[in-house]
Specification:
The chain contains 1 helix and 26 strands. By secondary structure, the protein is mainly beta. It has a single domain, classed as TolB, C-terminal domain (Neuraminidase, 6 Propeller). A 5-stranded mixed β-sheet has the order 14-18-17-16-15, with no helix packed on it. It starts with a helix and ends with a strand.
Amino acid sequence: MPRRYTLTVRLLLTVLLAAGLVASSTGPASTHGKDDRSFPDRIELPDGFRPEGIAIGHGRTAWFGSLADGDIYEADLRTGAGEVISEGPGTSSVGLKVDRCGRLFVAGGPAGNGRVVDTDSGKILATYQFTDKPSFVNDVVLTKRFAWFTDSMNAVLYGVPLGRKLAEESDVVRLPLTGDWEQVAGFNANGIARTPDRRALLVVQSATGFLFRVNPRTGNATRVDLGGAQLTNGDGMLLIRRTLYVAQNRDNKVAVIRLNRSGTEGDVRKPKTSPDFDVPTTIARFGKYLYLPNARFTTTPTPTTEYSANRIRR
């Protein structure tokens, strides 16, 4: 939806929540119209944009981050129309999540940082420099108390405390991964989500295809029992109740896993595919559909390379 309407809608939702007329949810609003079947299956993104992350809030607005320069692009899922709302800092925007206040939390890739962008104004509200070491801050998940970021080059999670007021950089928690976690060559910690019972975190290790349950207090990682299945090229993840969706980027498919409540075991179901997939990296939900940007990692990027996002039935 156009940016000038987002604040009004957000304030209205807050009033309805307070009055008990709308159920609270940690995911997108459950009041999506049935006419979402008529929405386009393909969202065109700017040429040369190089998308990686996607976030969808409580309306029909989606935000995409650019690996090329960190721009944030806003699109209306009903019309497909969009625009750049925040000029990037010249470094990558990777995984994205948006909170109820309209603040977009952005993983900064090789810059080793995370930042927070106001989706109304496009202004960068805060930047957190997590490390000065070689790194790739890859994805982010929002819990009740923290925004947790993964680092694909270092065995550590970065936690930014959440509240109405943004945390200071000195408040950032650095949580080493221990237990079953073993750092290997290539990309390590990538997509991140919460367990169904919300007591722990789930992290996929791209290089091995293993899924781990991580204690957010201690960093102890336990490998999730998937019956021998591996999530090869596991990237962005999305949890809906007890079903975990995992983008397997270069495999051009989405793994579907039915978890137990604690997230210690999972039953891998039939994956979702689409002929329109071209290295899908991350996942967001709107109604009965999943939206995935095509990063096209197997295509040499140029200023005129075409990019898009596709939706599939979940």
